[in-house]
Amino acid sequence: MTNKLQNEFDLDALFATEKSDAITPSDTFMARVLADADEIHAARQKLAPVVSPTPWWQGFVQHLGDWQAVSAFATCACFGLYLGYASTFDQVLGLVQSQETADLLDVRDSFSVASEFEISFLEG
Amino acid sequence: MPFDASSEIHDDALMVLYANGDGEAARILAARHTKRVLALAYRMLQNQAAAEDVAQEAMIRLWKIAPEWRRGEAKVSTWLYRIASNLCLDQLRKKRGAALDDIAEPEDDAASVEEVMLHKTRVATLNEAMNELPERQKLAVTLRHLDEMANPEIAEIMDISVEAVESLTSRGKRTLRALLQGQEAKIGYGT
């Protein structure tokens, strides 16, 4: 160690001496730092815009686009509800004469026509 | 916020609390970091008033950035050191060319105790030698050997590679040894 001190400057020892001599912030200085913190926060609060809560329906309208889109949406919603409550599709459209339609298109008749055609084709 | 609990709170969380108006969070952040930032500035500038200005400015920038602080991106301490280091380097560059005599000598206490005198002489001698170093070498040596920081953190503060930090500290120490050679007797080392 003695050789080291004599031949090469012992920087570590000198650094250790300096470290023990480190400056300590005074109370006045710390008060200044904290006053800055308060001041900056207060200034930020003043600059921040006052945000009023937006009603939910305004956001909804904004999301859809305009009032035309909203009325289209409302119409669709009402129609959907009506469909949901109506018992059958026939009742909705007033197609009570469904039985008549079935009578006009007699399925059995069409089968009989086809079979007659087939017989005549086979017989030549 | 009770102080016992607050001592466990991470700096990032304190930044959020301060941004939301918690004055206690500011007090804890200041207590945690101001001393080290001020010590670094004093070591670099060797002037208490200038060091306080730098430390205060660094803390002001911390308060200002709080609302935009990104959690986990950087350590508050590293960020503060980087700001303080740059402010110190700016000051030193402005002072470049000023005579060494302009730098205030540390005042001696009235006490004539030999140990106190020797201690002050050692610190003054080291400071004089440190002032001879180029700014970035001085900063690297200060952060490594006086603030006891790890090389990767110094690299982040100085925005250079770890290898560059090693090179700066190594050259700085070599220069310091050369400057201090022959002064062993004056500061009570060697013969």
Show the helix and strand layout.
The complex is a heterodimer of chains A (124) and B (191).
Chain A: H1 2-7, H2 11-19, H3 27-47, H4 56-64, H5 67-85, H6 89-93, H7 98-104, H8 107-123
Chain B: H1 3-6, H2 11-19, H3 23-45, H4 48-65, H5 76-95, H6 114-132, H7 135-146, H8 151-158, H9 162-180
Helix pairs in contact in B: 2-3, 3-4, 3-5, 4-5, 5-8, 7-9, 8-9
Task: Provide structural commentary.
The complex is a heterodimer of chains A (124) and B (191). Chain A is mostly helical and 124 residues long. Chain A has two domains: 2-47, no CATH class; 66-123, no CATH class. Chain A has helices at 2-7, 11-19, 27-47, 56-64, 67-85, 89-93, 98-104, 107-123. By secondary structure, chain B is mostly helical. Helices cover 69% and strands 0% of the residues of chain B. Chain B has helices at residues 3-6, 11-19, 23-45, 48-65, 76-95, 114-132, 135-146, 151-158, 162-180. The longest helix of chain B has 23 residues, at 23-45.
Relative helix content of chain A: over 70%
Return the string of H and E elements of chain B.
Answer: HHHHHHHHH
Termini of chain A, distance in Å?
Answer: 130 Å
Query: Which CATH class of the largest domain in chain B is shown?
Result: Mainly Alpha
What's the short version?
The complex is a heterodimer of chains A (124) and B (191). Chain A is an all-alpha fold and 124 residues long. Chain A has helices spanning 2-7, 11-19, 27-47, 56-64, 67-85, 89-93, 98-104, 107-123.
Key words describing this protein structure:
heterodimer; A: 124 residues; mainly alpha; elongated; B: 191 residues; Rna Polymerase Sigma Factor, Chain: A; Arc Repressor Mutant, subunit A; 2 domains
